[in-house]
Design brief:
Elements: H1 2-11, H2 17-23, H3 30-53, H4 57-78, H5 86-111
Length: 113
Protein backbone atom coordinates (compact mmCIF):
# COMPACT_ATOMS: atom_id res chain seq x y z
CA UNK A 1 0.00 0.00 0.00
CA UNK A 2 2.81 2.43 0.85
CA UNK A 3 4.49 1.90 -2.50
CA UNK A 4 1.23 2.31 -4.38
CA UNK A 5 0.14 5.49 -2.64
CA UNK A 6 3.62 6.96 -2.21
CA UNK A 7 5.42 6.07 -5.41
CA UNK A 8 2.66 5.49 -7.94
CA UNK A 9 0.03 7.99 -6.83
CA UNK A 10 2.13 10.83 -5.44
CA UNK A 11 5.68 10.73 -6.79
CA UNK A 12 4.71 9.57 -10.28
CA UNK A 13 1.50 11.64 -10.24
CA UNK A 14 -0.81 8.82 -11.32
CA UNK A 15 -3.63 9.86 -8.96
CA UNK A 16 -4.13 13.56 -9.81
CA UNK A 17 -7.11 14.02 -7.48
CA UNK A 18 -4.80 13.64 -4.48
CA UNK A 19 -3.34 17.09 -5.13
CA UNK A 20 -6.88 18.50 -4.81
CA UNK A 21 -7.17 16.93 -1.37
CA UNK A 22 -3.87 18.48 -0.23
CA UNK A 23 -4.81 21.83 -1.79
CA UNK A 24 -7.91 21.89 0.43
CA UNK A 25 -5.62 22.59 3.41
CA UNK A 26 -5.52 26.36 4.04
CA UNK A 27 -2.33 27.87 2.63
CA UNK A 28 -1.53 24.94 0.36
CA UNK A 29 -2.63 26.01 -3.08
CA UNK A 30 -0.95 25.39 -6.42
CA UNK A 31 2.75 24.58 -6.26
CA UNK A 32 2.71 24.38 -2.45
CA UNK A 33 0.15 21.57 -2.60
CA UNK A 34 2.25 19.74 -5.18
CA UNK A 35 5.40 20.11 -3.06
CA UNK A 36 3.62 18.84 0.07
CA UNK A 37 2.16 15.94 -1.91
CA UNK A 38 5.64 15.00 -3.13
CA UNK A 39 6.93 15.16 0.45
CA UNK A 40 4.16 12.85 1.61
CA UNK A 41 4.94 10.54 -1.31
CA UNK A 42 8.60 10.42 -0.30
CA UNK A 43 7.62 9.62 3.30
CA UNK A 44 5.26 6.85 2.18
CA UNK A 45 7.84 5.36 -0.16
CA UNK A 46 10.51 5.48 2.55
CA UNK A 47 8.09 3.76 4.92
CA UNK A 48 7.53 1.03 2.33
CA UNK A 49 11.28 0.42 2.11
CA UNK A 50 11.52 0.38 5.90
CA UNK A 51 8.70 -2.16 6.22
CA UNK A 52 10.24 -4.40 3.57
CA UNK A 53 13.62 -4.24 5.32
CA UNK A 54 12.14 -5.86 8.43
CA UNK A 55 14.13 -3.53 10.67
CA UNK A 56 12.32 -2.59 13.90
CA UNK A 57 8.88 -3.76 12.73
CA UNK A 58 6.96 -2.31 15.68
CA UNK A 59 8.49 1.11 15.10
CA UNK A 60 7.60 0.86 11.42
CA UNK A 61 4.01 -0.04 12.32
CA UNK A 62 3.90 2.88 14.75
CA UNK A 63 5.15 5.26 12.07
CA UNK A 64 2.66 3.89 9.58
CA UNK A 65 -0.18 4.23 12.07
CA UNK A 66 0.76 7.84 12.78
CA UNK A 67 0.97 8.64 9.08
CA UNK A 68 -2.42 7.04 8.31
CA UNK A 69 -4.07 8.73 11.30
CA UNK A 70 -2.63 12.12 10.39
CA UNK A 71 -3.58 11.89 6.74
CA UNK A 72 -7.07 10.65 7.57
CA UNK A 73 -7.60 13.42 10.10
CA UNK A 74 -6.33 16.08 7.70
CA UNK A 75 -8.40 14.72 4.86
CA UNK A 76 -11.56 14.62 6.94
CA UNK A 77 -11.05 18.07 8.45
CA UNK A 78 -9.96 19.94 5.33
CA UNK A 79 -10.82 17.90 2.26
CA UNK A 80 -13.85 15.79 3.08
CA UNK A 81 -15.57 16.88 -0.13
CA UNK A 82 -12.76 15.17 -2.06
CA UNK A 83 -13.31 11.82 -0.29
CA UNK A 84 -16.29 10.12 -1.97
CA UNK A 85 -16.66 7.18 0.46
CA UNK A 86 -15.48 8.14 3.94
CA UNK A 87 -16.63 4.90 5.60
CA UNK A 88 -14.90 2.80 2.97
CA UNK A 89 -11.68 4.79 3.36
CA UNK A 90 -11.72 4.36 7.15
CA UNK A 91 -12.55 0.65 6.92
CA UNK A 92 -9.76 0.03 4.41
CA UNK A 93 -7.27 1.91 6.55
CA UNK A 94 -8.34 0.08 9.72
CA UNK A 95 -7.91 -3.27 7.95
CA UNK A 96 -4.54 -2.21 6.56
CA UNK A 97 -3.29 -1.13 9.98
CA UNK A 98 -4.56 -4.33 11.59
CA UNK A 99 -2.56 -6.35 9.06
CA UNK A 100 0.48 -4.10 9.50
CA UNK A 101 0.42 -4.65 13.26
CA UNK A 102 -0.14 -8.39 12.89
CA UNK A 103 2.89 -8.62 10.60
CA UNK A 104 4.97 -6.37 12.86
CA UNK A 105 4.21 -8.49 15.93
CA UNK A 106 5.01 -11.72 14.08
CA UNK A 107 8.29 -10.26 12.78
CA UNK A 108 9.20 -8.97 16.24
CA UNK A 109 8.51 -12.36 17.83
CA UNK A 110 10.44 -14.21 15.14
CA UNK A 111 13.49 -11.98 15.65
CA UNK A 112 13.22 -12.09 19.43
CA UNK A 113 12.55 -8.34 19.81
Amino acid sequence: MWFYHGLWCKLLGRCPKQVDLVAAVPGLRGNRAKAVLLGIGLAETALAVWVLSGWRPRAAATGGTALVAGMNAGGLVFGRRHIPEVRTLLAENAAFLALAWLAAEQDARASGS
